[in-house]
Amino acid sequence: MTTLAIGCDEAACALKETIKAHLAARGIAVQDFGTHDDQPVLYPDVAIAVAERVAAGEIDRAILLCGTGIGMAISANKVPGIRAAQTHDTYSAERAARSNDAQIITLGARVVGPELAKAIVDTFLASSFDGGRSIPKVEAIAAYEASLGHGAARAAG
Fold first, then answer.
1. What's the burial of 141, exposed, middle or buried (CB within 10 Å: 0-12/13-18/19+)?
2. Is 66 labeled as catalytic in the residue annotation?
3. Is the distance from CB of 99 to CB of 134 less than 8 angstroms?
4. Cα of 55 vs its chain's centroid, Å
5. What is the pLDDT of residues 55-88, one digit of tens each?
6. 3-state secondary structure at position 130
7. Among residues 66, 85, 97, 120, which one is catalytic?
8. Cβ(83)–Cβ(102) under 8 Å?
9. pLDDT of 1
10. DSSP symbols for 77-107
């Protein structure tokens, strides 16, 4: 069973709760990294906490949400071995998993409505890495990361 985490800043707290309820209705448990109200938080703190757990292999996949999804993606991608993809449609969610072996997707609560967000999450969770022609591309990212001294970089798969 895949372990799944979710985290957000105050701009996306309502959407996070909508996605959590949607996943719970499907019998999918998530580890919630907050935030839990509309009080301001630093989204990098949430993104990095989640991404570090994914990079350590403690969590398989994650969903991060903020106003646009951009800040969460940038922050999560600073953690060695992480491939976080900003997704605003089901096609990008599918390709994030199938072509890029992304472990994390990010969504923008000010950009994506609740029904589309649920569809994006469902698509991501139903998709897996295809390998094939994408393997050398994902491995090249990991190799570059390793060349920077980030030994924790994980290759595709």
1. middle
2. yes
3. yes
4. 12
5. 999 999 999 999 999 999 999 999 999 999 999 9
6. coil
7. 66
8. yes
9. 59
10. TTSTT--EEE-SSHHHHHHHHHTT--SEEEE
